[in-house]
Write a structure and sequence with these properties.
single chain; 312 residues; alpha/beta; 8-stranded mixed sheet; two-stranded antiparallel sheet; 9 helices; 20% strand
């Protein structure tokens, strides 16, 4: 008949005391009082029928019996620790934290994220949105989808897509008393502006780029969230100056249309997939990268179809 194992707390008390050769230091490590620790040691000695420590005036020493059993007990605790750490590493390997811009997150990433979750139900996915770049060293971020110049030292960087700046409106604005057909017709409509200077170009910037004069580009409705601006435009509030990839789903679903050109490539910036160097080979990150690339290609195809339909 196998001998019952002593209580785990008693074994922990013995292990800590054997390592420190001090009741007070062992008690401090285990966050118990020295009296409580001594009680656990005495209980273990009673159960084993062995004396484990020689108690001196100012020190303690391991008995021969203690020296015999301690290596096995220490190895057991190390095995438990390693098993728990393996479990934690497994959880971390399945966790994927993604940072992206608010507009792309709300209007492009989240509406189609169900596809990725269906393909990879084992990956715990978390999304954060910010107009600023996440810090991979301090923000616990695995992947960034960045609208940038692509220069990110010490990070793995892969270009995903260009971005374009263009006017968009509800299909209802193409007809009526003042149909929206040319840039000059903008004077009859509310100009919706994503009010993020230095992040999103303004109507003034766009009109200077395309050479439109005679329209007050400072008037209209200002919103500091891109998806709110797109939602306002889809409800017929006015004409929004927007990023094409961010608005791609609204365009494909015909909630928004392009009343006129030109579409202007965003100068010096595009979407990039970024992560810490070497992490691009990690299975969850590679899975996300492959999925995003495929979804970007599908988005471009849907936009081409929408353009063809609009020209008919």
């Amino acid at each position: 008949m196998r001998r019952p194992l002593p209580p785990l707390n008693s074994l922990r008390a013995f292990d800590a005391t054997a390592r420190h050769l001090s009741f007070s230091k062992a008690a401090q490590e285990l966050h118990v009082t020295p009296a409580a620790l001594s009680h656990q040691i005495r209980g273990l000695e009673d159960q084993l029928g062995l004396k484990l420590f020689h108690r001196r005036a100012r020190s303690i020493e391991l008995t021969e019996a203690a020296r015999t059993i301690h290596p096995g007990i220490r190895a057991g605790f190390e095995a438990i620790r390693e098993a728990v750490e393996r479990l934690d590493r497994g959880k971390q390997d399945r966790l994927l934290v993604v940072s992206s811009t608010p507009g792309l997150t709300a209007k492009w990433l989240v509406p189609r994220l169900y596809k990725f979750l269906a393909l990879h139900p084992d990956i715990e996915t978390r999304i954060t949105a910010s107009v600023s770049y996440a810090n991979f060293a301090t923000d616990d971020i695995d992947v960034g989808i960045r609208l940038s110049n692509g220069v990110h030292p010490d990070l793995y960087v892969e270009k995903l897509s260009e971005e374009w700046l263009l006017p968009l409106c509800s299909p209802r604005l193409l007809a009526g008393q003042h149909p929206l057909k040319t840039p000059q017709d903008l004077k009859h409509f509310t100009l919706i502006q994503v009010d993020l200077p230095g992040v999103v170009p303004s109507w003034t910037d766009w009109m200077e780029m395309v050479g439109v004069d005679g329209i007050d580009s400072t008037r209209g409705l200002r919103l500091n969230v891109a998806d709110h601006a797109l939602d306002a435009a889809s409800e017929g509030v006015g004409v929004v100056l927007a990023y094409k990839m961010v608005a791609s789903r609204d365009i494909a679903l015909k909630r928004l249309v392009i009343p006129f050109g030109p579409e202007i490539p965003l100068p010096g910036r595009a979407y990039y997939f970024v992560c810490a160097k070497g992490q691009e080979k990690r299975a969850p990150i590679k899975a996300l990268r492959d999925w995003i690339v495929a979804e970007m290609q599908e988005t471009h195809a849907a936009l081409r179809e929408a353009n063809v339909a609009a020209e008919r």
